């Protein structure tokens, strides 16, 4: 497995989007940071999030530290008006994180339920053609590349 893959510790099938692999606040923080174009301070993320709901600055700070420890954010010390502070930026793109999570979940499903996964995918492909069409096109392009 590549060193830079993000490995979610949990997958919550009953949640939506990023909350399936992150907690609700971690997902909000990551979405906020991905939306920023430059390294950002905790204060900047906090200011955006508190517009949506009441939240403590220290909660945002500890969440960003946790995301740093998980390898999702990088940071460096910078000078600010009040002294030294951390600025953070995403270590991985949203697409990289999503792809790593999908890979981890599908690999686990195949490892644990191989035949059931395969038969479900075949069943889905034959009954829901429009949903599987992008997959078919990717597979065809991949097979064409292998033949070259």
Offer a few descriptive terms:
three-stranded antiparallel β-sheet; single chain; 3 strands; 58% helix
Q: Structural class, please?
A: alpha+beta
- Mean pLDDT, as a whole number? 85
Q: Domain count, please report it.
A: 1
How much of the residues is beta strand, in percent? 5-15%
The CATH topology, please?
Answer: Arc Repressor Mutant, subunit A
Level-1 CATH class name: Mainly Alpha
Quantity of strands, as a count: 3
Instruction: Using the alpha-carbon principal axes, give the shape.
Output: elongated
User: What is the CATH superfamily?
Assistant: Winged helix-like DNA-binding domain superfamily/Winged helix DNA-binding domain
- In N-to-C order, the SSE pattern is HEHHEEHH
C-alpha termini separation: 26 Å
Task: Going across the biggest sheet, name each strand in turn.
Answer: 1-3-2
Summarize the main sheet.
3 strands, antiparallel
Low-pLDDT residue intervals, each spanning 5 or more residues: none
The CATH architecture comes to: Orthogonal Bundle
Helical stretch tally: 5
Which percent range fits the helix content? 55-70%
